[in-house]
Amino acid sequence: MLESKVKALSLHYGAQAHVPVDPFLIASKAHITVYHTDCEFSDRFGIIRTKNEGQTLFYLASNWDQAHQRFFLAHLLGHYFLHLNQEQHADRYCRIRYNSDPSAGYPEEQEADEFARFLLIPSHALSDCLNQRLSVEEIATHLMVPSAQVKARLNELKRAQNPSADPSIRGQVS
To answer: What one-character DSSP code corresponds to residue 47?
Structure first.
């Protein structure tokens, strides 16, 4: 299960102890260098580059607000830990239009989005927020994530609790 894998990674990198979770700290502890770039990524929010020497670089588009940058970095971490960590050399371009769109047919993008949601919106933090009766916007502000990702996480939680729920409910990056 993806959620348990993300939780294990969070514990390994010491990220579960703090809310909001800091994806920049995880990247640093995983020896990934993150650069903010002004480069024009017309259809991308980030690039992963693994050099032959084994050095991993993430280039994160700087034209997004902090909540989106945190989510995009967590998404890139998802690709790294789930899809690229075993490869010697790989360049990965993450296109924003692929996010959370099951009809687009990019399962690795959907999985990286889920990874990011599990990482930045951990179950214990979401439960605390719901127990406090916080709104979606308040949860998003508290956890420093886009509100669309909180909605998507809540929809995932509903589907997990009620598998017969409407499968057409999907979260989308705003």
So the answer is: E
CB 118 within 8 A of CB 77: no
| DSSP classification of residue 122 | -
Provide the token pair at 134.
């916080």
DSSP string, 51-107: -TTS-EEEEEESSS-HHHHHHHHHHHHHHIIIIITT-SSEEEEEEGGGTT-GGG--H
Instruction: Tell me the per-residue pLDDT of 25-45, one tens digit each, with 9 for 90 and over.
Output: 999 999 999 998 876 655 667
Q: Round to whole Å and give the CA distance between 80 and 14.
A: 18
Closest CA to 46 of 15, 78, 5, 4: 78
Please state, in angstroms and rounded to a whole number, the distance separating the CA atoms of residues 70 and 87: 24
pLDDT tens sequence across 137-161: 999 999 999 999 999 999 988 888 8
Q: How confident is the model at residue 85 (pLDDT cuts 50, 70, 90)?
A: low
Taking a C-beta distance cutoff of 8 angstroms, is the pair 14, 59 a contact?
A: no
- In Å, the largest CA–CA distance within the chain is 49
Residue 32: helix, strand or coil by DSSP? Answer: strand
